[in-house]
Specification:
With about 240 residues, this protein is mainly α. The chain is built from 9 helices and 2 strands; from the N terminus they run αααααββαααα. α4 runs antiparallel to α5, α5 runs parallel beside α7 and α6 runs antiparallel to α7.
Length: about 240
């Protein structure tokens, strides 16, 4: 009976995703593994973080709260990786901001399911007041972090500071359940690609992390597209 129940679970989970989403996840996993084989072959923490990352992204694209649980796990792993590379801004950002705010986002998502379905959060538009407050907080956080990171001797200070700004916007918009959170994460991905390519110039194994964030960029772009679609579908169901 347990085996039958597990098979049913796997069948339902498999068909929970569209064919395109399954292809996106499989291609993302394949690219991460290939990058690990080519550039690294040693740092299994980086590999684990990358695999967790592409998995939480496909769940985020479905507006599933489980994605935020995996985001916390990814933040802890990525914070440790950043510490070893002296990217203290990334470490502080993910351990001190992204991970805790992902917990708040998880609570927000669980408290706002769409029509009682806890596997899909209710998508909402960004109100003008929310946007202004978010931008003001982002500016304050970025300024404070700039001086902190400079005092700590953070490698590649300017892109590191920009990463703080985009990360804050991303987690804040995630909490607000706005589709724009995916665009903020995509912007953060672009900054992180630059950061890890720069790190890879002295240590080639870090190029696997750059490839990982390239994969993230594609996934976050899809997440934005799908959340816009979900927002439209939810509006149509509510009006029906």
């Amino acid at each position: 009976m347990k085996k039958a129940g597990f098979r049913i679970f796997l069948y339902d989970f498999y068909h929970y995703f569209t064919r395109g989403e399954r292809a996106l996840w499989c291609c993302s996993i394949a690219l991460v593994l290939v990058a690990f084989i080519i550039f690294d072959r040693r740092d299994y923490m980086t590999l684990t973080a990358s695999l967790v990352g592409v998995t939480f992204l496909i769940l985020d694209a479905k507006a599933n709260p489980i994605g935020q649980v995996l985001m916390v796990v990814f933040s802890l792993l990525y914070g440790a990786i950043s510490f070893h590379c002296a990217y203290y801004g990334e470490m502080i950002t993910y351990l001190g901001m992204t991970a805790p705010m992902s917990v708040f986002a998880l609570v927000s998502w669980l408290r706002h399911p769409f029509e009682g379905d806890r596997s899909q959060v209710r998508v909402r538009g960004l109100r003008a007041g929310d946007g202004i407050i978010t931008l003001l907080l982002c500016g304050a956080v970025t300024l404070i972090f700039f001086f902190i990171l400079r005092a700590m001797g953070t490698a590649n200070l300017v892109p590191g500071t920009i990463s703080v700004a985009t990360s804050f916007l991303a987690v804040a918009l995630t909490y607000l359940r706005s589709p724009l959170f995916a665009l903020a994460y995509a912007a953060n991905d672009a900054v992180l690609i630059v950061l890890w390519v720069m790190a890879g110039l002295s240590e080639p194994s870090y190029l696997s992390v750059a490839v990982c964030f390239g994969v993230f960029l594609v996934n976050d772009s899809y997440t934005y597209i799908n959340w816009r679609r979900l927002k439209r579908q939810q509006g149509e169901k509510t009006r029906a």
